[in-house]
């Protein structure tokens, strides 16, 4: 059940449904068993990537 009715996994979703959502979003998940809590952490990380994870183009000054 979608607690906030927004299509984004939350604690109201089953573990299986959260894992299916991650798969549909092409989020890499570790092999082996994953808890619902860990799966929800991956959802959060996917929706709110940190600055370190964002890809940025390196500027070298050689572009002139």
Summarize the structure.
The protein is an all-alpha fold.
Count of discrete alpha- or pi-helical segments spanning 4 or more residues: 2
Strand content: under 5%
Q: Please, how many domains?
A: 1
Structural shape = globular
Determine the structural class based on helices, strands and strand pairing. mainly alpha
**Low-pLDDT ranges:** none
Mean pLDDT: 84
Biggest pleated-sheet summary: none
* N-to-C series of helices and strands: HH
Question: Can you count the beta strands?
Answer: 0
- Helicity level, as a percent range? 25-40%
How widely separated are the two ends? 55 Å
Rg, alpha carbons: 16 Å
Main features:
single chain; 64 residues; mainly alpha
Explained architecture:
This protein has one domain (1-49). It has two helices and no strands. The chain has helices spanning 15-24, 36-47. It is globular. The model has no long low-confidence stretch (mean pLDDT 84).
How does the SSE layout of this entry go?
Elements: H1 15-24, H2 36-47
Helix pairs in contact: 1-2
């Amino acid at each position: 059940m979608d607690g906030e009715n927004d299509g984004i996994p939350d604690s109201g979703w089953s573990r299986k449904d959260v894992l299916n959502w991650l798969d549909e979003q092409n989020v890499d998940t570790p092999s082996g068993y994953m808890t619902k809590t860990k799966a929800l952490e991956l959802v959060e990380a996917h929706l709110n990537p940190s600055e370190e994870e964002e890809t940025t183009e390196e500027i070298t000054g050689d572009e002139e």
